[in-house]
Write a structure and sequence with these properties.
Shape: globular
Order of helices and strands: HHHHHHEEHHH
Structural class: mainly alpha
Largest sheet: 2 strands, antiparallel
Strand content: under 5%
Radius of gyration: 18 Å
Number of helices: 9
Helix content: over 70%
Length: 273
């Protein structure tokens, strides 16, 4: 299992990095729209939708993303990201309530599919916003990815070695407080390296560190939210397209929360100019 995870990551990560730094915004957005489309198909499956509904769902999301890109309106992008960030306040409530044996997750397929829109469209919009920053957009996307990858890796290995106290055992039995703390610590180190290389002033550096911690905490809830839906659907993974990782949603679940939170924080705190 671990071997397959490493092999798949070794193939995908260089491809992602190439698109982050060298692809034009239109191609970058198009490639991530493909990931969104696959994720939408998998999410609709978790919602117990039939194949016809799944196809219509994917087509509607693709058309929505195309329309957003074509309009190219900064206010629209920011509004979508804001909606995504606000949604995660609701998602935290769902996860915490479920852990306390109070299931507030919507049961109907349409409601769950609406949640999928709030996961996928703001994530894609946030990444497209970052890529559009000509000065340091690619570096910020890379920072976001490193925060997620670094926190996930640190949490995994720290949890394996020292993990004893379960974070949310009713939602995801494998996550521990020790692993989560290690993930947050990794995010601080990664961000510290970024602000040093970028020659940020002290105020901006502290804001970056604080935002990175919040982003990683959000990414944890992104993972937990998908775990909650999978648990209710009776599925271990969202799909099997990625050997050792499951489906695309299993890989971008953290990003669905991290992207809108990170981008909203950057814009509202004036960390991008």
């Amino acid at each position: 299992m671990l071997k397959n995870r490493i092999i798949t990551a070794a193939i995908l990560i260089p491809i992602v990095i190439v698109f982050i730094f060298w692809a034009e915004t239109i191609w970058f957005s198009a490639v991530f729209a493909v990931f969104v489309a696959i994720g939408a198909w998998e999410w609709a499956g978790l919602c117990k939708a039939n194949d016809t509904i799944k196809i219509l769902y994917v087509i509607s999301i693709i058309l929505t993303l195309s329309g957003i890109y074509w309009l190219n309106n900064s206010l629209l992008y920011n509004a979508i990201v804001l909606c995504g960030a606000i949604y995660w306040l609701f998602a935290v409530l769902l996860v915490v309530a479920y852990q306390k044996q109070c299931n507030l997750l919507p049961r109907s397929t349409p409601q769950l599919m609406l949640i999928g829109l709030l996961l996928l469209i703001p994530m894609w919009s946030g990444l497209t916003i970052l890529k559009s920053f000509s000065e340091n957009g690619a570096a910020l996307i890379m920072l976001l990815m490193l925060l997620i990858w670094g926190a996930d890796t640190a949490a995994y290995f720290a949890g394996k070695k020292w993990g004893k106290r379960k974070l949310a055992y009713r939602v995801s039995p494998g996550k521990t407080w020790e692993g989560t703390i290690a993930g947050v610590a990794a995010s601080v180190i990664i961000t510290a390296c970024y602000v040093i290389v970028s020659n940020k002033n002290l105020d901006d550096s502290l804001l970056f560190v604080g935002l990175s911690i919040l982003t990683v905490i959000g990414s944890v809830f992104g993972d937990l939210m998908e775990s909650l839906v999978k648990r209710e659907a009776g599925q271990k993974d969202s799909g099997n397209i990625l050997p050792g990782h499951g489906g695309v949603m299993d890989r971008i679940d953290s990003l669905t929360a991290a992207s809108p939170i990170f981008v909203f924080g950057l814009v509202s705190l004036g960390l991008v100019r």
